[in-house]
Amino acid sequence: MSEKRREFQNILVMGKSGAGKQPRIDVLVKEFGLKQLSTGDMFRNYLGMLAKSGFTGRSDEFWDKGALRMMADAAIKERLAPYARSSDELEGLVLSAKARYYVDSGLFGPDDLVNAMVDDAFRRMGYKGAVLDGYPRTLDQAKHLESVLRKAGTRMDLVVLVDNDDEAIVRRTVGRRICPRCKRVFHLEHKPPRDGRFCTEDGTEVVQRSDDTEEKIRRRLQEYHEKVVPTLEHIRGLGVPVAVVPGNLPVFTEEAVRASVLDAIRAAGL
Predict the structure, then answer these.
(1) Rounded CA gap, 268 and 185, in Å?
(2) What is the model's pTM?
(3) Which residues of the chain have pLDDT under 50?
């Protein structure tokens, strides 16, 4: 097992939003020497860029209600130009505006937007050494990833599926809190921050993500069943092994999480 751990080029982590993927990703990163590549982090980085620009408009300002799509990039650029200090920054703000709309709506980002974000980050890694988190979520994204990896001469070796019940996820998500400085994840009931407010690592006041409301998580769960489940079956059909890891454990400790992940990988034949 120890030798095969070092041979993984890329691992996909899939599961419902709020299923408990991050502790399992932490195990994969540590055990196999990989780096997390998270679409969620990418979206949050773009949201931060928009906030820092000083733009205070509504998130649906660039949504064309008649065409049911985002406005053309040229129109978005015209509105955001006063907030950008360079052409590169303006391009980033366009992506930021799009990302903000989909996050605020509790929807998955469209394939072209997500593919563009992932391609840029993945390319800088040489298309290997990644734990891909939150990608692919649709059939088109999965086919795009297949093509990218084939051209790069790399591969996806394993899917780790974190399995959890919908209602358990709703309870888990609405109680989740994040340290904005070190990104440590807490839960008001199961892993409370100090005094219910502060990170136990650096003392920063924890926050609730803007997309961790019940309404938005239920919308994401619906999209998971409609889009991610068929995507997972497509990847399974390519012959990629799937290791199913329970999202809930009788005892939730770092060692218990680690053991559950490694046991699931063994059970998948790796």
Answers:
(1) 28
(2) 0.75
(3) 1-4
Contacts 24+ apart (CB under 8 A), 175-178: 176/18, 176/208, 176/209, 176/212, 177/206, 177/207, 177/208, 178/206, 178/207, 178/208, 178/209
Instruction: Determine the Cα–Cα distance for residues 58 and 27; give it in Å rounded to an integer.
Output: 39
| β-strands 63-64, 242-246 pairing | unpaired
Q: How far is CA 162 from CA 11, 46, 72, 117, in A?
A: 13, 26, 37, 24
Element (H, E) at 244: strand 242-246
Query: Residue 6's pLDDT is what?
Result: 58
Single-letter residue type at 148: V
Per-domain residue ranges of the chain: 2-38+109-175+212-267
CATH architecture of 2-38+109-175+212-267: 3-Layer(aba) Sandwich (3.40)
Strands 158-163 and 10-15: parallel
pLDDT of residue 134: 87
Contact 232, 24 (CB under 8 A): no
CA 4, chain centre distance (Å)? 26
Neighbours of 255 (CB within 10 A): 8
Phi-psi region of 18 (alpha: psi -120 to 50; beta: other; left: phi over 0): left
State the amino acid at position 36 in one-letter form. Answer: Q
Q: How far apart are CA 210 and CA 101, in angstroms?
A: 12
Q: How far is CA 204 from CA 75, 184, 264, in A?
A: 39, 10, 35
